[in-house]
Structure formats: structure tokens, C-alpha cells
Amino acid sequence: MGWHPEDAKDFHEAERIKLLEQLQNPKVVALGEIGLDYHWDTSPQKVQRQVFEEQLQIAIEQNLPISIHNRDATEDTYAILKNAGVDKIKGVMHSFNGDVEWMESSWISGLTFHLVEWQVSKKLK
Description:
It is built from five helices and four strands, in the order H-E-H-E-H-E-H-E-H. By secondary structure, the protein is α/β, with parallel strands linked by helices. The chain has a four-stranded parallel β-sheet with strand order 1-2-3-4. Strand 1, helix 2 and strand 2 form a beta-alpha-beta unit.
């Protein structure tokens, strides 16, 4: 349950209200897939950042773990997470296509990283 970055341009107040209502369902256990995708760039980057920040705040307020989509936006993703207060965030860094060195130097203790197989295999060749 969450608003994917590729569709961020369509996230308005009505969608925010609907998301908040859906998060009240006891079957919902996380907020995601949320984050940034600068690879496809189907929504303006500024809008993606705003929607990501807003959903992070919702996750913190509702004490929900998150599933983060991060494609070609590692630095901005990290900056937004730091600004939101990474000590308040738990979840999975899904679709992480940064490198291992960055991951180790910028470790966020509450997150588990999922390395994208096709991206890692290209770097190992």
C-alpha cells in the first residue's frame, strides 16, 4: 500500500485521503512501494521528492515500515531519509541500484537493502 514514484504526479489530496483510509485496514503491514525513480522519469523529480517526503511522514506517524523504490536517485533518497529522521524508519530498500561502497558508507540502521540482481551482475563483470 503506497504511491509509486512513477505515478507521483497523480498523487493529490484525494489520493492522500484514500491512502490514509486504506492504511487503517489491519491487513496493511507496511507503506510502499514509495521513493524515487529518476530512471524512467515519468513524474517530475521535484514532485517525486514531495510525495516521498509526505509518505515517509505518514509512515512515521502510523509507525509503519516502508518499502523504498530507489532507481538512479540514491543521493536524493538518502538525503530525504536523513531529513525525515532515519532513526524513526524501518523497512526495506527495494530496488536499490547504488553500489555496495555507498551502501556501507551511508548505512541506515533500520533498513534492509535488496540489491538489484541485474545491476549487481553488470558491476561484477
